[in-house]
């Protein structure tokens, strides 16, 4: 089968569409015929080796972890899935920018409801489930205020909407060009990070500080700066790692990998199908342009998700 492949840790422009063995289903697994695959920042780090200490890659590496497709083979011990079922899921380093991939039955795989096309379905799993896990980990509640830094990215797209749906007051970062879009997602206010210091502008609008900071951009000591936007005793949550302790009693919460509960992905898919969860597709590429899709994802400001369709 054809797949987008890295043969070693390498620059993104050296990716190629190459022949690799078609996967087979082991115990607890299903093989999927891929319809669409979405890109995530971790894909870029796996290719270049920027995250090899935390996430070492096996080569050849097939790019992509989010998928929508149909079940083409069912492995031993799998129940609930049959040939031809339409699904969406997260496949990890099995790779999804390919004609076929393999997925493990469990919370990271779900049936695709009617009304949810493959392109939007592929854009949900990693970003959507990460947003769910971030808000759950920090215990965001109705009536609280939250600052979302990185609101126009893949995870931010869902974090803003889910926080709003929980009843929180959302302040989100966005350029002037993206401000109306982010407000449509559910943000009560936006902060233009190109025109003002995000923390100072947030504190001007919420003088006591927000209850929760969701930082999807900064890492390391940069998160200590973001934490200044939280009220004393508030919380900061990030999918990247930072200081073990923060000033003023702000509690840091880090999730290096998302751990969804059963039903999380099904819930996101249902919301997307009925229109209560917006799935923003910033760019869409055919399989033959997959190398360009990765380059554009890495080098351009693209609102929402980048998806590659596979014939």
Automatic annotation (TrEMBL):
Superkingdom field: Bacteria
Its Enzyme Commission number?
Answer: 1.-.-.-
Q: Has UniProt tagged this entry with the keyword Protein transport?
A: no
Keywords attached to this entry: Oxidoreductase
**Record InterPro entries:** ADH-like_N (IPR013154), Chloroplast_QOR (IPR052733), ER (IPR020843), GroES-like_sf (IPR011032), NAD(P)-bd_dom_sf (IPR036291)
CDD domains, A to Z: MDR_like_2
A molecular function (GO) held by this record is: oxidoreductase activity
All copies of domain Enoyl reductase (ER), residue ranges: 10-308
Q: Which SUPFAM superfamilies match?
A: GroES-like (SSF50129), NAD(P)-binding Rossmann-fold domains (SSF51735)
Pfam families associated with the record: ADH_N (PF08240), ADH_zinc_N_2 (PF13602)
Q: Which Gene3D superfamilies match?
A: Medium-chain alcohol dehydrogenases, catalytic domain (3.90.180.10), NAD(P)-binding Rossmann-like Domain (3.40.50.720)
Q: What is this protein called?
A: NADP-dependent oxidoreductase
Q: What are the leading ranks of the lineage? A: Bacteria, Bacillati, Actinomycetota, Actinomycetes, Kitasatosporales
């Amino acid at each position: 089968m054809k797949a987008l492949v890295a043969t070693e840790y390498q620059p993104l422009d050296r990716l190629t569409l190459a022949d690799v063995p078609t996967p087979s289903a082991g115990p607890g697994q299903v093989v999927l015929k891929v319809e669409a695959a979405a890109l995530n920042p971790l894909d870029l780090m796996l290719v270049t080796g920027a995250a090899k200490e935390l996430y070492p890659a096996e080569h050849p590496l097939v790019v992509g972890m989010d998928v929508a497709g149909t079940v083409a083979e069912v492995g031993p011990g799998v129940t609930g899935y049959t040939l031809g079922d339409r699904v969406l899921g997260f496949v990890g380093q099995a790779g999804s920018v390919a004609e076929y991939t393999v997925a493990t039955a469990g919370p990271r795989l779900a049936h695709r409801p009617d009304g949810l096309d493959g392109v939007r379905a592929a854009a949900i799993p990693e970003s959507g489930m990460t947003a769910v896990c971030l808000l759950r980990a920090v215990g965001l509640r109705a009536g609280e205020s939250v600052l979302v830094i990185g609101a126009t990215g893949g995870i931010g797209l869902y974090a803003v909407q889910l926080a709003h749906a929980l009843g929180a007051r959302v302040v989100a970062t966005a350029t002037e060009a993206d401000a109306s879009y982010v407000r449509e997602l559910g943000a009560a206010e936006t902060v233009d990070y190109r025109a003002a210091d995000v923390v100072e502008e947030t504190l001007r609008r919420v003088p006591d500080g927000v209850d929760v900071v969701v930082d999807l951009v900064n890492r390391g000591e940069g998160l200590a700066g973001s934490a200044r936007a939280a009220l004393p005793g508030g919380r900061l949550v990030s999918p990247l790692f930072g200081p073990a302790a923060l000033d003023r009693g702000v509690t840091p919460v880090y999730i290096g990998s998302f751990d969804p509960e059963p039903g999380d992905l099904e819930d996101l898919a249902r919301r997307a199908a009925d229109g209560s969860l917006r799935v923003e597709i910033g760019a869409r590429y055919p399989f033959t342009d997959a190398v360009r899709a990765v380059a554009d994802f890495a080098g351009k400001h693209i609102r929402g998700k980048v998806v590659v369709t596979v014939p």
